[in-house]
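Tokens in:
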């Protein structure tokens, strides 16, 4: 066993010298590759209709459309917008949280941001009629980030937590 390396500011420890070390390398820009962001956004877009249908089923006034039909409509009309919003918001959050080692904070940040994406505009424009639908969006954002749990390598044990200068 070797002692852990303590990086100094401006060190080149983020540049992995071999393929074996590449797994432990912290990607200095986002912490996640673009393919990871696409995967997370896709998972969130697929989970959203299920959570939306569950929320609709739990409401007393379901209306004329069944929850299953509502889920299909959300999937059909909301998949592309959910992926696009998920990619943009996911990239910004991944960039801001790239030095945070606890993935639980990542999950909390994604869920809170997902909730705010629908709750804030609903409160400002729609007099709060759709605030209860912000919970499925928060759950979908949480599921999208949770799908990347094993793909994200947080900065720990001798790795750079900041970009090299």
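Residues out:
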């Amino acid at each position: 066993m070797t002692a852990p390396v303590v990086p100094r500011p401006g060190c080149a420890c983020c540049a992995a010298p071999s393929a074996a070390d590449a797994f432990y390398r912290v990607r200095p820009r986002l912490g996640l590759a673009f393919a990871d962001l696409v995967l997370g956004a896709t998972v969130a877009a697929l989970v959203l209709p299920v959570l939306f249908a569950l929320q609709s089923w739990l409401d007393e006034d379901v209306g004329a459309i069944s929850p299953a039909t509502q889920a299909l409509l959300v999937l059909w009309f909301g998949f592309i917008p959910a992926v696009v919003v998920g990619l943009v918001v996911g990239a910004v959050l991944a960039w801001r949280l790239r030095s945070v080692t606890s993935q639980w904070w990542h999950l909390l940040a994604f869920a809170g941001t997902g909730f705010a994406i629908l709750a804030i505009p609903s409160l400002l424009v729609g007099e709060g009629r759709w605030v209860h639908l912000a919970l499925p969006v928060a759950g979908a954002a949480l599921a999208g980030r949770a799908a990347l749990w094993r793909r994200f390598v947080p900065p720990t044990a001798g790795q750079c937590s900041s970009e090299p200068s």
